[in-house]
Amino acid sequence: MTADVTAAKSVSLQEARQLCDAPPPFPFGWFAVALCHELRAGAVLTRQFMDREIVIYRTESGTACAVEAYCPHLGAHLGHGGEVCGEELRCPFHGFRFSVQGSCVYSPSGAPPPAARLGLLEVRETHGAIFVWHGPAGQVPWEIDPLVDESDWRRVQHTVRHVHSHPQELIENNIDIAHLGTLHELRNAQLVEPPIFDGPRMRVDYTYTQPTPWTSGVDITMRLRMDGLGVLVDEVDILGFSMRFIGLATPVGERDTIQHLLVSVRKRGRSPVGKAFWCGVEKVFGLLVMRGLADQVKLDESVWINKKYLRRPAIAEGDGPIHAYRRWASQFYPEGAAW
Ligand code: FES
Ligand SMILES: [Fe+2]
User: Fold this and answer.
1) How many Å lie between the centroid of ligand 2 and the Cα of residue 248?
2) At 201, which helix (H) or strand (E)?
3) pLDDT in tens, 274-327
4) Cα(248)–Cα(200) distance, rounded to whole angstroms?
5) How far is the CA of 77 from the centre of ligand 1 (A)?
């Protein structure tokens, strides 16, 4: 009996601590579930999304779809044996087929029951990725801004990481200007001007001096744009190259996030020889930049994995607009969510 009480007490203490360890776990917004090229025509994939698994598939004509994992007939998991048949998804258990609108269009055992409807999720394809909407049913209040001049950029690097953190904390890392000096050893980090908050979007530019072994340092300006908490686009000019970083963060558990990092370089070279030359140079440069980025992220991870989310942090004057950022971020949670 005593042991049970002790066990119950320690669980509740642990739960109480976890409440403060991160903002509410599953914010509303658009979140990436795959890169476009991972989902070829006819493919069916299972993805962890928030607190559950979902199934994504692409029809033969190229439409990307996302559905709740379990068949409404008798509960088979559509990611385990589900098949694309033309424009329909076929369940492996009894062969019901579902249209891209979610309705059952064929049943081998009689007329399709009207209640047999797949749980459909909203899907968008942009930024080279497939995004699924998480939010109250039937409401998609905003879209991801398309990338400007996408065809002018060459994707040169991509990594995917499992991070023991929360998307809100990953973005806050860009607002927390003070840590750039202490943790990352970047000099003179400062905002160019206060961040611009525009509904679900936020923009912020900051500068810093990157120490190098061969000069007193290179001045760098980062231009960041966020679409909710799941999409971050960062453009920067480094040593004559225009780079674009895309960070896509998707919650897959209470304090677990899958993060895709994509690096693109603005294309150069007009002649075929020039294009081939610059393509090679950009790939090497992209590789070096990605390595540098990975080293910096490792420093952050060493903090993220152990840190605690403080609802009322003791912010100093030069810390950056953390309070303003958190007020903006609060729109992505259900009203009244405790955090
Ligand atoms: S469980 Fe899917 S068709 Fe029966
Ligand atoms: Fe950082």
Assistant:
1) 16
2) strand 201-210
3) 888 888 888 888 788 888 888 888 999 889 888 888 888 999 988 889 999 999
4) 15
5) 9
Pocket of ligand 1 from Cβ distances under 6 Å: 71, 73-76, 91, 93-94, 96
Number of the ligand closest to the Cα of 176:
2
The Cα–Cα gap between 288 and 208 comes to 19
Q: Which of 253, 336, 249 is nearest to 26 (CA)?
A: 253
* Sign of the four-CA dihedral 213, 214, 216, 218: negative
User: What string of DSSP letters covers 27-57?
Assistant: -SEEEEEEEGGGS-TT-EEEEEETTEEEEEE
Smallest-distance ligand from the CA of 302: 2
Helix (H, G, I), strand (E, B) or coil at 160: strand
Task: Tell me the helix, strand and coil percentages in the chain, rounded to 5.
Answer: 25, 35, 40
CA–CA distance, 77 with 80 (Å, rounded to integer): 6
